[in-house]
Amino acid sequence: MEDEKTYRGSCFCGAVELRVTGEPVAMGFCHCESCRQWSAAPINGFTLWRPNAVQVTKGADQIMTYNKTKHSARKWCKTCGGHLFTDHPPWELTDVYAATIPEFPFKPGVHVNYQDTVLHMHDGLPKLKDVPPDLGGSGETLPD
Predict the structure, then answer these.
(1) pLDDT tens readout for residues 38-80
(2) How far is residue 121's CA from residue 18's CA, in Å, rounded to a whole number?
(3) For residues 118 and 31, is the Cβ–Cβ distance under 8 A?
C-alpha cells in the first residue's frame, strides 16, 4: 500500500481523524430511508472500501456505534456527533461517507435503492432498484 494514494478525513470537530488508502470498491449515491435519515439529507454519497483500506488515525476512543440492523454498524464522533463511516460486516465493506474525505475525488458510478428516492436525479448513471446482485440485491434497474 506504500505507493497507493492516501486521503485524510475527519469528523465535524476534528476529534476523530481517519485515512483511506488506494481505491474504493465502488462509489455512488444511496437513496434508502435509513441512509436519508442517518445523513439528514435526501441522498447519501458513499465510497465503499475494503476494511483494511480504512484506518482511524486519531480519536478511536471518541467513536460511538449504532447498529440498526446486522448489516450496518454506523460510526460517529461522540464529541460533535459528526458521522464518519459505516461498517458492513456481511459484505466485508466499509462505507466512508464521501463528505468525510473532502479531498477524495468522488466519482459516483451508480444509484442504489432508487425505488426509495425522494430526489430524482437525471445524471445518466444506472439506477438500481436495490443493491447489486453480489450484495444480495435484484440487480434490477429503474428508469433515469
Answers:
(1) 999 999 999 999 999 999 999 999 999 999 988 899 999 999 9
(2) 30
(3) yes
